[in-house]
Design a protein that fits this description.
By secondary structure, this protein is an alpha/beta fold. Helices cover 52% and strands 15% of the residues. It binds uridine-5'-diphosphate and magnesium ion.
């Protein structure tokens, strides 16, 4: 890699994954522009990832990139998901510091100032945010979230902070480490923790979405939670072995009891309902753990295919060049 001469000014790259954010984008841009003007000693790069939006998000990004040369964008060929968006951003950001933010203002741009100050003054590698209050969450979702964080803390070796958001500001070294983890099944909350480095956690109250709707339904989040367990823990596999062993032990004791009973009391035929229940229970347990193994296998299968995490259809450079040709 060619050594580039470091300019005096720090550069902060802001990655914003966008999926149908036409309503939020103008508000977000206005706010982040304001913040950047309040930080004259820092250069900014705004890297928007258009994750296959079907509304006017791309058009807005094109226009914005014409108005402001700090704006870059990467537009995917289809919807690849927020994880792919974050990875594309991290891989393509050029700043000394990199932040990831949602477009919907739930990650307030004004926090950037505070985060940058902490990272510079307190010598952290990363400042990340968590939010314990979720006014827009239903009771069931809150309950599931609490249980899930407790579970993942027990079965995974990576630290997971309850209520952690993807909103964070990181130093270049940490970003490079994350980009090096180019696994296909991405679970960023785990990856951020896996790479280590010093992270300072700040609590804040996440506001409601400024416009538009959340793209994460309960079902999508549930799938994401399973993804997190599969990506960062092999405990379910160990559990299947332990349950198997336990049942072997129980059946061994049952065999001895039955033999002794038969010798002592003779052999009365009976008890078939309990036998039927046992067979059904056992096949249920077996199928369940077969499913668990299958899930790990399917992840391995997708991983070895080495499919691209995202596919780029257009960037701001393509757009500028197409404009020149006209
Ligand atoms: N997002 C994305 N791709 C998707 C879904 C979401 O890039 O497939 C973006 C979305 O535009 C937003 C961020 O990810 O900037 C967080 O999404 P959202 O606000 O819907 O999630 P929530 O805050 O409700 O968890
Ligand atoms: Mg949101």
């Amino acid at each position: 890699m060619a050594m580039t001469k470091k300019t005096q000014k720090d550069k902060i790259s802001i990655i914003v994954p966008c999926y149908n954010e036409e309503e939020s984008l103008p508000i977000f841009y206005k706010e982040i522009d304001k913040i950047s003007q309040e930080m004259p000693k820092v250069d900014f790069e705004l890297l928007f990832i258009n994750d296959g939006s079907i509304d006017k998000t791309l058009n807005q990004l094109r226009t914005l990139s014409e108005q402001d040369n700090r704006i870059r964008y990467i537009s995917f060929s289809r919807n690849f998901g927020k994880e792919a968006g974050m990875y594309a951003g991290l891989e393509n950001a050029t700043g000394d510091f990199v932040a990831i933010m949602d477009a919907d203002m739930q990650d307030p741009p004004s926090m950037i100032k505070k985060m940058y100050k902490i990272i510079k003054e307190e010598n952290y590698d990363c400042v990340a945010l968590y939010s314990k209050t979720h006014k827009d969450y239903s009771l069931i979702r809150k309950l599931f979230t609490t249980c899930w964080y407790k579970l993942i803390a027990k079965i995974s070796s990576t630290e997971q902070i309850p209520g952690a958001r993807d909103f964070r500001l990181m130093k270049r070294k940490m970003v490079d480490a994350i980009v090096n983890m180019n696994e296909y099944n991405r679970y960023s909350k785990g990856i951020f923790s896996f790479v280590g480095f010093n992270t300072k956690w700040l609590n804040y109250e996440a506001p409601d979405r400024v416009a538009g709707k959340s793209k994460f339904s309960f079902f999508k989040l549930f799938k994401y939670a399973i993804e997190g367990i599969l990506a960062f823990s092999t405990a379910p596999l160990v559990l299947s072995a332990i349950v198997g062993l336990l049942f072997c032990l129980i059946s061994f004791i049952a065999i001895i009891v039955i033999i002794v009973k038969t010798i002592v009391y003779g052999d009365p035929v009976g008890g078939w309902p309990s036998l039927a229940c046992m067979v059904m229970f056992m096949s249920g347990v077996q199928l369940f753990f077969l499913g668990v193994i299958g899930m790990y296998l399917s992840k391995t299968y997708l991983e070895i295919k080495k499919r691209p995490i995202y596919i780029i259809k257009e960037t701001e450079q393509d757009y500028r060049e197409s404009k020149k040709e006209l």
